[in-house]
Fold this protein.
Amino acid sequence: MPKILIIEDESAIRRVLIKILSEENDTYQLEEAEDGLKGLEAVKNNDYDLVLCDIKMPKMDGVEVLEAARKLKPEIPFIMISGHGDLDTAVNTMRLGAFDYISKPPDLNRLLTTVRNALDRKVLVVENKKLRKKVSKNYEMVGESEAISVIKEMIEKVAPTEARVLITGANGTGKELVAHWIHEKSERSGGPFIEVNCAAIPSELIESELFGHVKGAFTSAVRDRAGKFEAANKGTIFLDEIGDMSLSAQAKVLRALQESKISRVGTDKDIKVDVRVVAATNKNLKKEIEAGRFREDLYHRLAVILMQVPALNDRRDDIPILIEYFSKKITSEQGVIPKTFSEKAIKLLKSYDWTGNIRELRNVIERLIILGGKEVSEEDVTLFASK
């Protein structure tokens, strides 16, 4: 049930607000504070779903309460209560993060509508946080080897910055995973993470996919369409397999990086974008530059930070940890009884040449869980995961 705090120095106004809210919904838990200091102390020590806060109060005014509370618990929506002379200040509190403001004396319908909307928003914020935690778990980086520890340390240093990152490594090593972690640990984590597989999009469509198009730009362009760069505004765009991008698209990406502007296919009109670019490739881009297939100026724009994701063969010590991690994940997804792996089975798996890297290991573990015995044995590995 929603828990609401009312911070108001006028007892008559507090009584009115409590009466209106309790009659609207008898499940509301209503608490009150008679000044800003007591109100802020209550926010520190309790979890509220909503705070109604007066602006003009002794000891500590509502603006100060709002600013302090936003630092402590930014997810709590604040509705500011303003007198006629406080309207300019009330509008300013919106810039500081208040959900809305209501004037004295409070209009019944406006008050109840604003309270309902603020509580709905709080629910959405909480659900979004839970969803983000689930997403983070799906992209968890597993391993304790020196090679993977170096990558984790780099991510911790690089993620909070705005630096562009070029991730290199063979197929299946986890380049996409690294890109997700960079976004999740960045200041842009609340914004979108947009993935583009440059190798999967035909060269004649890549520009439209990245930058959008206007109606009539080409035969099938029946309406205006925004591209991935616009979709990633205020967030991160991940350009996977960028080594497969056409030279004309590369030129437009270079402009987007240089000027923070893009233009849709079929028009010269500029659109401002605020996007962090993380790119990845399994190709040697320096050789691609020598062959004339990749722009050197774009390479230097992208490769502010270079991250080489190690192959599984270079982090064999992580294989037992990865086996345990994938086993739990797969048995949960498949709804089957969890299985253990014998020491001999793990030793044999560690000895294999994992040309397909993490992706191949996961597939093999899934096969062994489905086809192997109650405890996956060395014989099971030989039968079902033979290299």
Residues 27 and 46 are 18 Å apart (CA to CA).
